Amino acid sequence: MKKLIPGTTSSYVDGKGFDTYKQMIELGNGLSLNQVCNITTLQPHMIQNWVKRGYIPHPIKKKYYTKHLARILLINALRECMYIEDIGSLMVYINGDVDDESDDTISEEDLYKLFSNIIYELNDLNKIDELVDKKVKDKTLNKCMKVMVNAYVGSRFSKKSDEYLQALK
Question: Which of 28, 54, 67, 151 has its CA 20 to 30 A from that of 166?
């Protein structure tokens, strides 16, 4: 089964996830809302709502950069299994105020890459904690990453269950 880059409908290419999008951002000097929607399959109003509610930093001159896309992909990856308010709280535990990078434990890009890499490397669901412990030493970030990975994996199973149920009908 091919592994999807969390928060997108794209597959990993040679284990690369976010780096593919980072190149697009650098080449285009940011992404338009339409480009972000194409990557995520989200509707523009949903992303704009997340900005208004403070879950994502405001775009800069209508452009989305690595910190924006990383946060959007994280939220999109987790929204099927967690309430948006809980995802927002989780992000505050990790990085404080969305508009203040000085209080960040880890950059948005590095947080997403860490999450994405753990998902990519995860082959044994019984070893989620072990894999996270190996990659994340900061206690708060470690606990938050375990929440994120377990929730994401749980949502994949839920989707698969729904597919099987629909096949029965």
Answer: 151
